[in-house]
């Protein structure tokens, strides 16, 4: 009898739903979760749930791409299946769908053929609009939960559900919806919180790029950054220039702050328990993209949410 690896054990311990998610047949958006397997098949599934005491790395490594993936013609994001639940960014040279081919792991041959790639080194930052708790004047990850679930709702929407997230000593039920449209580069985010208390605060924002970062954050909940980074530390020759932006709904804004890594917007739920914001991004890999920092900043400031 073969010994099961930690990754396989983690998958067996999780609740998995296979099959095809309901879709609106839009050929310009896609969303998926794929299981990691040594045979390279990486089958699509609709939903996966892990118990709260599952090993973080086992969860992370059980999913091909380390989490659910969502894309439109310009960009793609993956939402890490771990306590960070960070958003990582993929930018395309040519507007199209391609993640089912590259899976965020673009080969040198594919790069030479004009495919896009992972362009962001998230590290310990808030990345591109990741959601966090806010404690002791810093963003905190989603560490203690009853269960963690990722679900493909349709080919435009991913749901992340954290059951019994223990925050400030009490459980919160948190539902995160990440959505893209076929005619816009924006990522729409809606956080629904149940069980929170009036004094609970949360945070989102965008990271400062590793090299040559320039950026701004404004009281009306708009922030943008521009700079270079090396997303794959094994290929230091691949330097990516990236632009990030975020716009938070006015009714959710509490305050704005900066730290060493991030432009942070402190937020709280509206009267319906919701927090809403929109993430924008670009990269110099785009053949018809943004040529300068000022062009990107103007775009973020003037962008009208659709």
Task: Characterise the protein shown here.
The protein is mainly β and 306 residues long. Helices cover 11% and strands 45% of the residues. It has a 15-stranded antiparallel sheet that branches. The chain has a five-stranded antiparallel sheet with strand order 9-8-14-19-18, with no helix packed on it. It has a single domain, classed as Beta-galactosidase, Chain A, domain 5 (Distorted Sandwich). The termini are far apart.
- Net shape: globular
Mean pLDDT: 92
Q: Structural class of the helix and strand makeup?
A: mainly beta
Q: Assign the CATH class.
A: Mainly Beta
Output the CATH topology.
Answer: Beta-galactosidase, Chain A, domain 5
Largest sheet: 15 strands, antiparallel
Instruction: State the total count of DSSP E strands.
Output: 20
| Separation of the first and last Cα atoms | 55 Å
- Estimate percent helicity: 10-25%
Low-confidence stretches: 1-9
| Beta fraction | 35-45%
Radius of gyration: 19 Å
Salient structural properties:
mainly beta, Beta-galactosidase, Chain A, domain 5, five-stranded antiparallel β-sheet, 45% strand, disordered N terminus
Short description:
The protein is mainly beta and 306 residues long. It contains five helices and 20 strands.
Write the layout of secondary structure elements.
Blueprint lengths: L5 H8 L1 E4 L11 E5 L9 E8 L4 H7 L4 E5 L3 E6 L6 E5 L7 H4 L5 H5 L4 E2 L13 E4 L2 E3 L6 E8 L2 E11 L2 E12 L2 E11 L7 E6 L3 E8 L3 E8 L10 E9 L4 E6 L3 E6 L6 E10 L9 H10 L4
Antiparallel strand pairs: 1-3, 2-3, 2-4, 3-10, 4-5, 5-6, 6-7, 8-9, 8-14, 10-11, 11-12, 12-13, 13-20, 14-19, 15-16, 16-17, 17-20, 18-19
Helix pairs in contact: 1-2
């Amino acid at each position: 009898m073969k010994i099961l690896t930690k990754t396989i054990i983690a998958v067996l311990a999780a609740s998995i739903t296979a099959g095809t998610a309901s879709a609106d047949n839009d050929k310009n958006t896609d969303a998926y979760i794929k299981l990691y397997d040594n045979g390279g098949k990486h089958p699509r599934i609709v939903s996966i749930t892990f118990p709260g005491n599952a090993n973080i790395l086992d969860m992370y490594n059980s999913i091909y791409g380390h989490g659910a993936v969502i894309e439109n013609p310009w960009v793609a994001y993956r939402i890490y299946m771990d306590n960070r639940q960070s958003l990582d960014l993929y930018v395309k040279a040519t507007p199209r769908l391609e993640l089912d081919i590259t899976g965020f792991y673009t080969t040198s041959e594919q790069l030479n053929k004009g495919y896009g790639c992972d362009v962001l080194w998230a590290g310990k930052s808030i990345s591109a609009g990741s959601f966090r708790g806010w404690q002791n004047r810093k963003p905190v990850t989603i560490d203690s939960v009853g269960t963690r679930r990722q679900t493909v709702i349709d080919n435009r929407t991913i749901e992340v559900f954290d059951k019994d997230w223990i925050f400030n000593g009490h459980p919160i039920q948190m539902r995160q919806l990440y959505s893209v449209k076929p005619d816009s580069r924006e990522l729409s985010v809606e956080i629904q919180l149940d069980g929170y208390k009036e004094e609970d605060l949360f945070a989102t924002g965008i990271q400062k790029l590793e090299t040559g970062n320039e950026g701004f954050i404004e009281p009306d909940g708009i922030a943008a950054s521009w700079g270079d980074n090396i997303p794959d530390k094994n290929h230091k020759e691949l330097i990516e220039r990236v632009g990030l932006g975020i716009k938070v709904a006015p009714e959710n804004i509490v305050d704005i702050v900066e730290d060493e890594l991030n432009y942070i917007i402190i937020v709280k739920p509206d009267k319906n328990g919701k927090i809403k914001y929109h993430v924008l991004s670009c990269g110099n890999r785009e053949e018809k993209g943004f040529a300068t920092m000022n062009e990107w900043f103007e775009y973020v400031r003037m962008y009208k949410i659709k």
